[in-house]
Amino acid sequence: MMKQKVNFFWFRRDLRLDDNTALFHALQSDLPVIPVFIFDDAILERLPQNDARVSFIYDSLQKINEELAKVQASILIKKGKTAEVWKSLVEEFDIQNVFFNKDYEPYAIKRDVDISALLKENNVGSFAFKDHVIFEEKEISKSDGLPYTIYTPYKNKWLEQYRILGSVAENDTQPFFANFAKNHYLFPQLSDIGFERSSIKVIPHNLSQIANYKETRDFPALDSTSYLSPHLRFGTVSVRKLVNWANRKNQTFLSELIWREFFIQILYSFPHVANRNFKSAYDGIEWQNNEDDFKRWCSGTTGYPMVDAGMRQLNKTGYMHNRVRMVVASFLCKHLLIDWQWGEAYFAEKLLDFELASNVGNWQWAAGTGCDAAPYFRVFNPEIQLKKFDEKGIYIRKWIPEFSLGYNKPMIDHAFARERAIATYKAGILK
User: Fold this and answer.
1) Does the annotation place 342 within a ligand binding site?
2) Is 129 marked as binding a ligand?
3) Does the annotation list 261 as a binding residue?
């Protein structure tokens, strides 16, 4: 019996049916489309069994599957090594083409090159599309073709190019849902994938909370952020819709979306930043890397209320307010002289919105080792930050219930830590 010719759409970090570029193009083809998601062993093996992000991915896929059921279709869920999964799919189906959206992280780039080669060997076409960003790779570059390494000129060029477009077209996939292959694949239990449900939840995003974003974004007690970041990370929302909305409604918020693309471009152009300093001159810094100090930072017991509240919020919820992230990152690198890579790895483990480009970019910004980073002699004073941005102590009391009873003595004196950090950086920066 001959197998039906089909095309595949490969879900990755674009977990939505609406305004999904590669899916839109897949559904324009003249063959039935089977959507597939692969739980990649290479990623899963590094995660705890109750990882909250896996629960969120699972729930997002389930919502997609419920939508597909309305047109007698379903999503095919697989688990394993990605190459092995595609080898089995090529044998099982008569696949003509595979459509997917690009990912710009080093692991994903190599994976996609390998899978495209595997498909080609089996006479299967592969088509990759820009979806995760407005401008990708070298679309925003200097006049000499080199990538920007300073945010402000990148932003100006980005805005110039965006305004030439007028807005970014959004793809309406709904009219083409009839082109999904009619099938019913068994949707697995979370336990079938080897995971259990996390008690930590991803909060629904809410753009109405950022009406006064410019005035309120630095005050963690106001809880006036959008909670969009995990949704952007896993693509449950369209960046085109967000950018078009922000351009109409909130330029400050648009700037934050551009920062995200700036860091994605940096990682794409300079992949070494994932595990090395962007500025090699900083390679000579002698970090203290005291494990006991690191444990106190991780657990939120440094004696500095804003640092500790932030770390406790992270450990309990998977979130941390952006202003507080800057304070805790500066404290680790400057006060404790612990390599930014230790903090980056801890955030990667805990943050619901972990995205390699932004995580590395922001950590290197705080450490002073990155492109367009805070100068090495800028050392946040956690106590001044507390007075400026949580003067009434509402945020810290929420996460440190024992604060009113008298709080721990700071583990290190700020003035001493500042002088030590500046001296260490001065001695370590290579001439």
Assistant:
1) no
2) no
3) yes
Find out whether 263 is annotated in a ligand binding site. yes
Is 185 assigned to a binding site? no
- Confirm or deny that 215 is annotated as ligand binding: no
Which residues does 68 contact at the CB level (< 8 Å), separation at least 6?
A: 17, 35, 74, 75, 177, 180
Q: Does the annotation place 258 within a ligand binding site?
A: yes
Q: In terms of domains, do 290 and 381 share one?
A: yes
Q: Is residue 26 part of a domain?
A: yes
Is 405 annotated in some ligand binding site?
no
Output the tens digit of pLDDT for each of the chain's 431 residues: 678 999 999 999 999 999 999 999 999 989 999 999 999 999 999 999 999 999 999 999 999 999 999 999 999 999 999 999 999 999 999 999 999 999 999 999 999 999 999 999 999 999 999 999 999 999 999 999 999 999 999 999 999 999 998 878 899 999 999 999 999 999 999 999 999 999 999 999 988 888 788 899 999 999 888 999 999 999 999 999 999 999 999 999 999 999 999 999 999 999 999 999 999 999 999 999 999 999 999 999 999 999 999 999 999 999 999 999 999 999 999 999 999 999 999 999 999 999 999 999 999 999 999 998 878 889 999 999 999 999 999 999 999 999 987 888 999 999 999 999 999 999 999 76
Asked if residue 18 and residue 69 are part of one domain, the reply reads: yes
Whether residue 112 is contained in a domain is answered as: yes
- Residue 80 falls within a domain, yes or no? yes
Residue 322 is assigned to a structural domain of this protein: yes
CA–CA gap between residue 225 and residue 218 (Å, rounded): 9
Domain of residue 424, CATH code = 1.10.579.10
In the chain, the number of structural domains is 3
| 318/232 same-domain check | no
The model's pTM is 0.95
Residues found in the chain: 431
Q: Does residue 425 contact residue 377 with C-beta atoms inside 8 Å? A: yes
Is 163 annotated as a binding-site member? no
Does 240 appear as a known binding residue? no
Domain residue limits at 102 = 1-132
Q: Is 238 known to sit in a ligand binding site?
A: no
Contact between 382 and 331 under an 8 Å Cβ cutoff? The reply is yes
Closest residue by Cα to residue 412 from 296, 283, 255, 282: 296
